[in-house]
Write a structure and sequence with these properties.
Elements: E1 11-16, H1 36-44, E2 50-55, E3 76-79, E4 82-85, E5 111-115, H2 138-144, E6 149-155, H3 157-170, E7 174-183, H4 190-201, E8 204-206
Helix pairs in contact: 3-4
The protein binds zinc ion.
Length: 211
């Protein structure tokens, strides 16, 4: 039995990275990533306040395997802030791959937050870049506007949604992930690790029908 949530004025819906490159046919396709788009549109209609994130890399970004001769996507490297997974080129600023999926229909979204624009730092989270120190400004924005609960959905569950939910908690917000409105990449057990981490941090995963 799932509790029903009542959405109020202090709730924000954070829609993570619904971009062409993360959908089938894109540069870093999340399996069945496109399936979540109609559900996210429906969910977004229930919220007065919606923020969209957009992965937004310069060419030659540090997170691209192509920036490191001899490296392949999904290998890891050690960088100044720790271990970094290398990805296929994706979401290059201004390209079609970086654009929102054409079926995403959330005209009332109030903020588009771009992340990953520093060449030398990746940014999974909507709150902090991967050095875990450089802030995107989202926490301040949400606080200034009086939001308390962050509902999350999007791509991918085990990377950008995971880190964003974790950081929402770290910043003192309640974080709730709408799991059937997410899809995973699932490298090296990342999906199981995400579920375990959410349990530890008190981040709830709920189905869309709870809303
Ligand atoms: Zn990226």
């Amino acid at each position: 039995m799932t509790d029903k949530f009542t959405i109020g004025a202090q709730d924000i819906f954070l829609v993570v990275d619904i971009q062409n490159d993360f959908c089938p046919g894109g540069g870093l396709a999340v399996p069945r990533g496109d399936e979540v788009v109609p559900l996210i549109n429906n969910l977004a209609a229930k919220y007065a306040h919606v923020v969209l994130t957009q992965d937004w890399h310069p060419r030659g970004h540090l997170s691209f395997a192509s920036s490191h001769p001899g490296k392949q996507p999904y290998q890891t490297i050690e960088v100044a802030y720790g271990t970094q997974v290398l990805w296929p080129d994706h979401c290059v600023q201004g390209t079609e791959g970086a654009a929102f999926c054409k079926d995403l229909a959330i005209p009332h979204a109030e903020l588009v937050l771009r992340k990953g624009y520093h060449r030398e730092i990746d940014s999974y989270s909507a709150f902090y870049e991967n050095d875990r120190r450089t802030r995107t400004g989202l926490a301040g924005y949400l606080r200034e506007r009086g939001f308390r609960r962050v509902f999350l959905a999007g791509l991918a569950f085990d990377f950008c949604v995971r880190y964003s939910a974790e950081d929402a908690r770290r910043e003192g917000f309640e974080a709730i992930v709408i799991e059937d409105a997410c899809r995973s990449i699932d490298v090296d057990g990342s999906m199981t690790a995400t579920h375990e981490l959410f349990k530890t941090l008190g981040i709830r995963c709920i189905p869309a029908e709870a809303l």
